[in-house]
């Protein structure tokens, strides 16, 4: 007996010695480094960077796999979450110092049947380490030693509240969701402070198994686990028996919506934002001297976006685009597929750019075999103008390409013209299906008649033109056989006023103005007002033959509502690190410069008001009940591009509509700028004006320069608006027969567009105008 006792003592001492040696080796880093005190205080966890709207609304996030995490403070976490966590995972949390000896011994002797022995501090230690839970016994033993050491250090360095907060910020909830804040947002669309006890119980219940107890995937199992958690809260006195019983009887309800690149606020803008942030973060370093990572360092990017205006913009697009799509789908060339005749290269390019083509190629199929496969019908999801923006169908991959290429696209942008702050950005009809953004600086389309106000502004500023200045509505010869327009079809041959020429978008009169300004001077003027694209100085640019982006047009048009100041649109207001320290601010004043005088800008407003009262956007201002606004429609050949640019004193907005392939277009009058693009602009402003919180007032007016206060020009727009009997035709571009005058031969920006630019149809006959209206807007041609 004595010998056995001695042997047991020797074995015990040997075991303790071995354990002490292992602990010593672990602490020396032999089995891998332990986190330092500094690392424990500032754990290097991947954290998503958040994109925030002007009012701090979360728009979206940038993160890597395993990094969809945003930290919360203890005070911002519902006490139900804390209670549920302690009751379920560590009942003696406030009584131990990192290691609960009682729980550990219970787990050892009962082999874990009565629950594990790991405290919250130990679980946190595992979460903070780079190791996953080890699978083999030896590795798991070493890992447990590390957990004990780290847990003890955590308890010495942090308060209990800090440990709970750190734990809840690091724990995974499945679906690539980390931390209580993102879990609350994902499963309930709430902040952690807003969670109810039954909701907190569901989320904490997931910690035992975030897949099997995921309420989205396994609602019954999640409900049962929730009720177990509620039972633990009742057992520990955190809920009364009656309350716990009532909560257990509730059905499981979640509001699941995961914020990813395809949803959230302004997804097109967030994609553009990534590129801007690369430049913005260049040269900025973290305290350790390493560069900031957009996907790992938990940055907070505050944008200029107004969430309500963004919603109004998207609603306006969704209101108009299905109607236009129906009109396009009814066309014979779309129904029969003849629109694709002569464009096989477009379809070939789309097929070869697809994942399907690459996969079949990797399988060893020839091009001919792949093309045959593209003609076989398969089940697929395609875009549709319904609530889900998709539908299931049976379609061949080739027909799917045609279907999606035949969808009309749009771009819509809103900004504060005084500061350049972008308030809304829509780059297409659906980001999930169509990733290509049509609003950014690099995406350019033929601008048509929306270029005209810019030419007129230069004539007013530099040539002394006035709204009543007479201009010749005749074809202009620029020498070398360059006739603009290419035909005389829309030329009345009369002398009309400059204001009349703009209100009714007269191509011939505009060509006359271009001849006075000269193309070379006009292209230089475009550069001064904020058009980065180098436009070649061909006379046809007076009619909008050049390709420019909506972004550039917004920049250029900013001179009108801002009193002659060119204001660059911007989308970032500031960038903060994960701790709220401001890394960079973006001051709008740096991107503003005077290009034309306030007087010239006001004269342009007077003329552009004609467009929205009696011109090509007739009645717009009256329908919206606005005191003052101006605008310009634009339509290119065969309605390939439809535009409307317009502004009120507080907002500037622009919209473009067209297909990515320019040979696909609405052939009827519905495809013109006044019928296609203008309704989106109008619907948006109607919503903004109806929202008192927007701060955009119907009765807002432009500042009138003192030089014009005693000028009879003040009567011009009033008489124009009162002239209800005046009738005008919409812009109706027609193909011209002189491509040489219209198409710049070596303009790379225009290489994909049609070689002709449209012109306006001659307005209908009307009676001669009298008084100042006749003086300013001239006699409408017979």
TrEMBL record:
Q: Which GO terms describe its cellular component?
A: outer membrane-bounded periplasmic space; plasma membrane
Catalysed reactions listed for this entry: Preferential cleavage: (Ac)2-L-Lys-D-Ala-|-D-Ala. Also transpeptidation of peptidyl-alanyl moieties that are N-acyl substituents of D-alanine; [GlcNAc-(1->4)-Mur2Ac(oyl-L-Ala-gamma-D-Glu-L-Lys-D-Ala-D-Ala)](n)-di-trans,octa-cis-undecaprenyl diphosphate + beta-D-GlcNAc-(1->4)-Mur2Ac(oyl-L-Ala-gamma-D-Glu-L-Lys-D-Ala-D-Ala)-di-trans,octa-cis-undecaprenyl diphosphate = [GlcNAc-(1->4)-Mur2Ac(oyl-L-Ala-gamma-D-Glu-L-Lys-D-Ala-D-Ala)](n+1)-di-trans,octa-cis-undecaprenyl diphosphate + di-trans,octa-cis-undecaprenyl diphosphate + H(+)
Q: Where is the Penicillin-binding protein transpeptidase domain?
A: 411-650
* Basic and acidic residues bias: start-end ranges: 748-771
Report whether Cell inner membrane shows up as a keyword of the record.
no
Where is the protein localized? Answer: Cell membrane
What is the designated name of this protein? Penicillin-binding protein
């Amino acid at each position: 007996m004595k010998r056995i006792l001695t042997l047991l003592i020797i074995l015990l001492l040997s075991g303790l010695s071995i354990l002490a040696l292992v602990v010593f080796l672990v602490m020396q880093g032999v089995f891998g480094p332990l986190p330092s005190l500094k690392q424990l205080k500032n754990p290097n966890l991947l954290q998503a960077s958040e994109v925030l709207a002007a009012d701090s609304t979360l728009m979206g996030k940038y993160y890597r796999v395993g990094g969809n995490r945003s930290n919360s403070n203890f005070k911002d976490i519902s006490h139900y979450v804390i209670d549920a966590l302690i009751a379920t995972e560590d009942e003696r949390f406030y009584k131990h110092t990192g290691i609960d000896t009682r729980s550990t011994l219970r787990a050892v002797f009962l082999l874990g049947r009565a629950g594990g022995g790991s405290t919250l501090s130990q679980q946190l230690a595992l979460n903070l380490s780079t190791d996953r839970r080890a699978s083999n016994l030896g590795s798991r033993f070493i890992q447990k030693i590390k957990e004990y050491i780290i847990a003890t250090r955590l308890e010495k360095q942090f308060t209990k509240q800090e440990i709970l907060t750190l734990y809840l910020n690091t724990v995974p909830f499945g679906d690539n969701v980390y931390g209580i804040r993102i879990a609350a947002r994902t499963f309930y669309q709430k902040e952690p402070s807003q969670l109810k006890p039954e909701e907190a119980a569901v989320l904490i219940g997931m910690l035992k198994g975030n897949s099997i107890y995921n309420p989205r995937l396994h609602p019954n199992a999640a409900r049962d686990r929730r009720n177990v958690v509620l039972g633990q809260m009742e057992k520990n006195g955190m809920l009364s028996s009656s309350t716990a019983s009532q909560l257990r009887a509730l059905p499981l309800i979640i509001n699941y919506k995961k914020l990813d690149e395809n949803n959230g606020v302004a997804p097109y803008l967030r994609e553009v934002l990534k590129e801007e942030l690369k430049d913005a973060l260049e040269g900025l370093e973290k305290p350790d001297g390493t560069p900031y990572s957009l996907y790992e360092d938990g940055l907070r990017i505050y944008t200029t976006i107004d969430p309500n205006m963004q919603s109004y913009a998207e609603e306006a697009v969704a209101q108009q685009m299905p109607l236009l799509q129906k009109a396009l789908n009814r066309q014979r060339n779309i129904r029969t597929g003849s629109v694709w005749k002569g464009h096989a290269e477009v379809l070939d390019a789309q097929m070869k750019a697809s994942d399907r083509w690459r996969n079949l190629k990797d399988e060893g199929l020839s091009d001919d075999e792949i093309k045959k496969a593209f003609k076989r019908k398969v089940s697929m999801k395609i875009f549709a103008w319904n609530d889900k923006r998709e539908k299931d169908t049976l379609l061949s991959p080739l027909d799917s390409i045609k279907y999606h290429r035949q969808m009309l696209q749009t771009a819509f942008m809103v900004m504060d013209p005084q500061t350049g702050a972008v308030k809304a950005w829509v780059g297409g009809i659906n980001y999930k299906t169509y990733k290509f953004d049509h609003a950014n600086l690099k995406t350019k389309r033929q601008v048509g008649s929306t270029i005209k106000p810019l030419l007129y502004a230069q004539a007013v500023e530099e040539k002394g033109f006035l709204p009543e200045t007479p201009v010749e509505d005749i074809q202009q010869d620029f020498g070398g056989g360059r006739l603009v327009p290419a035909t005389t079809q829309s030329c009345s041959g009369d002398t009309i006023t400059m204001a009349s020429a703009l209100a009714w978008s007269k191509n011939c009169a505009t060509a006359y103005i271009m001849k006075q300004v000269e193309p070379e001077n006009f292209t230089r003027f475009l550069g001064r007002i904020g058009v980065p694209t180098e436009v070649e100085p061909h006379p046809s640019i007076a009619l909008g033959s050049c390709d420019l982006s909506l972004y550039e047009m917004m920049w250029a048009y900013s001179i009108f509502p801002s009193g002659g100041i060119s204001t660059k649109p911007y989308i970032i207001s500031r960038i903060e690190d994960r701790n709220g320290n401001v890394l960079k601010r973006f001051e709008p004043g740096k991107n503003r410069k005077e290009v034309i005088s306030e007087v010239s800008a006001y004269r342009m407003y007077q003329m552009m008001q004609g467009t929205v009262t009696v011109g090509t956007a007739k009645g717009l201002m009256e329908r919206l009940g606005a005191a003052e606004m101006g605008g310009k429609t634009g339509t290119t050949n065969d309605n390939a591009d439809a535009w409307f640019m317009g502004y009120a004193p507080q907002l500037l907005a622009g919209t473009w509509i067209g297909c990515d392939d320019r040979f696909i277009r609405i052939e009827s009058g519905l495809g013109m700028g006044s019928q296609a693009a203008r309704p989106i602009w109008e619907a948006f402003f109607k919503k903004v004006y109806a929202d008192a919180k927007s701060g955009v007032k119907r009765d807002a007016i432009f500042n009138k320069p003192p030089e014009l206060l005693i000028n009879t020009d003040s009567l011009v727009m009033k008489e124009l608006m009162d002239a209800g009997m005046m009738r005008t035709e919409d812009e109706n571009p027609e193909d011209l027969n002189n491509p040489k005058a219209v198409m710049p031969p070596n303009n790379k920006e225009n290489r994909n567009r049609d070689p002709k630019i449209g012109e306006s149809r001659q307005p209908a006959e009307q009676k001669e105008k009298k008084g100042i209206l006749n003086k300013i807007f001239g006699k409408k041609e017979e």
